[in-house]
Amino acid sequence: MPIIEEALEKFSNLPLESILTIDSIDVSQKVKKLSVKHGINLAPMLIFVIVDDLDYHSAKKYLKNNFEINESVASKIFNEMEEEIFQPLVLRLNFLNSKNEISVQDCANYIKEIFKNNLINEIKSDSIIKEKFNYRIFSVAKDDADFFDTLEKIFYSNQENLAHLTISAWLKDFVSSKGSGIFDEIELSDYLMRSPNCKGLNEDDKRLVRKLLLLYRNVKFFPESMPNDTGDNWEIIPIDDEKVIPKREKLGVPKTHEERQIDHLQETGNSFGVSSLERKVIEEEINSRKKIEGLKILAKKYPEGSLEWRAIMDEIRKLEK
């Protein structure tokens, strides 16, 4: 049986863009949706498969044995994970890794699909992911003079919701307010401050609308929208200065009451009143509690609700039964 602590250690050694992609909002939501649907926590299995602690055949067996379900149900769950999570993950990781050879057409199709249906998650993604994504956009545009025109048209049809409007509606509202020409930071700030549709937005949503409109400007007015003619610091999806939050240092696990009791008996040489059976029970309790405390400390290294966090909490629940 794979061990979650060991799997998480391997996971932390993957390339950073892989970690950010696998632990993204999009993947997390898909794992949560399937977990709720089937009444089991699928986060640990995903991590085990990612780090090769489970291959495809073993994964089905893991589902069957770990959750006490029959083989047909295990196969059904795994097939759903493969279709909804594993295959899209492989496609995305290949797309983001510039060293992987992908046809220009495949890249173009992937980018167009994102602009049509999943742009908000892309705007929210980490700077490292955005840099990789922007690289692929420019690599396609280099061989397709009309690519930005194509993206603009797709952009206008995007029906994703951002606050109380769709992306399409935000673009139309901005153009109605500020016109269809290229705009600067002053005009953008004025829109965010004075537009009736921006009033009442929380700061997070307002930042997303700002990024959305910068993305619109970068696409519609390329290359005029770029900061120079050299290619330096060019971007389509706006990149912030956000940094990946480093994981916390490992902390020591405080000793339990039972552990201190055994330490005292060992120091004094006094085992009066503690039989070998009682000692064994106490030691088993110590091991269990110590592992739980260690896992709780480990869980603090990850954002609550993340893939890693849910995998650790699943292990804690098993130990506390």
Count the beta strands.
Answer: 2
- Mind describing the biggest β-sheet? 2 strands, antiparallel
Structural class: mainly alpha
What share of the residues does DSSP label as strand, in percent?
under 5%
Along the chain, the helix and strand elements come as HHHHHHHHHHEEHHHHHH
How does this model look, in words?
The chain is mainly alpha-helical and 321 residues long. It has 16 helices and 2 strands. Strands 1-2 form a two-stranded antiparallel sheet. α2 packs across α6, α3 (25-38) runs antiparallel to α6 and α7 (104-117) packs across α9. The protein is elongated. The protein starts with a helix and ends with a helix.
Give the secondary structure arrangement, pairings included.
Elements: H1 4-12, H2 16-22, H3 25-38, H4 43-50, H5 56-66, H6 71-96, H7 104-117, H8 119-124, H9 127-141, H10 147-156, E1 161-162, E2 165-166, H11 167-178, H12 185-194, H13 203-220, H14 257-268, H15 276-299, H16 307-320
